[in-house]
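Appendix B, example 12.
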Amino acid sequence: MENKKAIVKYLLNEEGRKQSLLSGGDGKEVQVLEIDATPEIIQLAKVTTDGDVFLSIGFSGNNVSVLSSIVLDVKIEGNLHKGYCKYEERGNYHFSSPQAPEVLLDWERNRLERISRPEIDTEYAKLRAEYAKRLDEQSAIREEQDARRREGKEAREKALEAEKEGKELEKRTWIDRYGSDHLKKAVGLGYNCQRLYVEERVLLEHPNYTVDFDDVAEWKERSCPSKKALDELESVIIAGANAEIVWLTKLPHNNQYNDCLEFEGCEAVVQRQWLGKYDLIKIPDTHYV
């Protein structure tokens, strides 16, 4: 018995391998020691059919349990919250420095003592349940956020549809009351006459204004507008228009002044988003002289 030797193996992480090299060791991940096979070591080790004694410390084959932490990122109302849950995982254990035989034996004794206590299994199950609960809470939060987004999208779509239906009702009502025979007949037979509808309505409600159907008109800020322009602006604002006085630099294509070879710019009143879509432009005439 006094000559019997035991082979002890353990693992080093990168820091441990560096320490091994610095202290004159081989720097390998698997460290191998040969020590006397004492009765205590024989009780901890495995003995082969040939009587050889092997003790592997920290290897997964020994059902090693290592206490670790999981970081949970939970997003609540747009704010990121971090939660921590400890759990035990099975796997190899790597030491961060070369170990003396007596230290390795103490580590293995402590490991065996810890896993032999029944409360360890209870605590392990408790930690796993806590982790699963946190995952369920996180999943529930995501589902609630998704439901809110869906509800918001559906509400926006309903609002847009209601707005569209309202505009269509307004259009048909106006055509029935004020539209030309041509417009009434075309719409009554199912034709889309949006442009004719807009032209007739502008002619009735805002004479002397031009509709910028193609959004080609351009303007810049007007400084110190004329009194007549201010009077016109005031009247359309009182009527509920979103309007401003500008310095017109480019005419709409459908304007009567497009035959002019040169356009140097002029003062104009612009009603924005008329019927929720069109810009109306009042081109200067004798009214602004």
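Residues 207-288 form one domain. The CA atoms of residues 235 and 243 lie 10 Å apart.
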